[in-house]
Specification:
- The protein is 84% helix and 0% strand.
- It is mainly α.
- The chain has one domain.
- Helix 6 packs antiparallel against helix 7 and helix 7 runs antiparallel to helix 10.
- The chain is rod-shaped and about 90 Å long.
- The termini are far apart.
Amino acid sequence: MYEIIKSGGWLMWPILLCSILATAIVFERLWTLHGNKVAPEDLLSQVQRLISENTLDDYRLLVIRNSSPLGQILAVGLDNRHKHRMVVKEAIEEAGRHVVHELERYLNTLGTIATITPLLGLLGTVFGMIKIFAAITPRGISDPTILANGISVALITTAAGLTIGIPSLAFYRYLRGRVSELTVTMEQEAMKLVELMQNERNSSA
């Protein structure tokens, strides 16, 4: 493995660094963006029970807020439950923007890695080809196998860059889609909470 990296030249090291970083981001985001960790299915029903039983206090509100990203959004709505409906919706939307920003953490970095690693590989190949032709120009091609071997070594960086770039792009697209799905789910749950609080207010009136 070390010999392959060494043969590819110094540009193999940033490509290797990108591969380590991309792997870390993918595993971290796959763990973080697990559906039940972001938007627990039973959270809204728990909130509804607390509201109907009139047992929603500061401690339970803190537990809801710390439970998940969806909990952060619902907690903001519950904090403003005695205010006008539009105020509640605006507060929830603001909280939602912050939560989505957190869900998208590191994804831009992963997208950048997916873009630059093939370019780094191509750059390494160009440098390698320049080096090969500079070496054979004074003497000519006495042995074609030397040129063939040199080209194969120069192409190592391109292969490495594509090997890192293609999976990185695939995971970037997948994780982006995952964030979009979770965003829609949280929006739906937040709107259900708004309707629930509105119904509770109307029934109390």
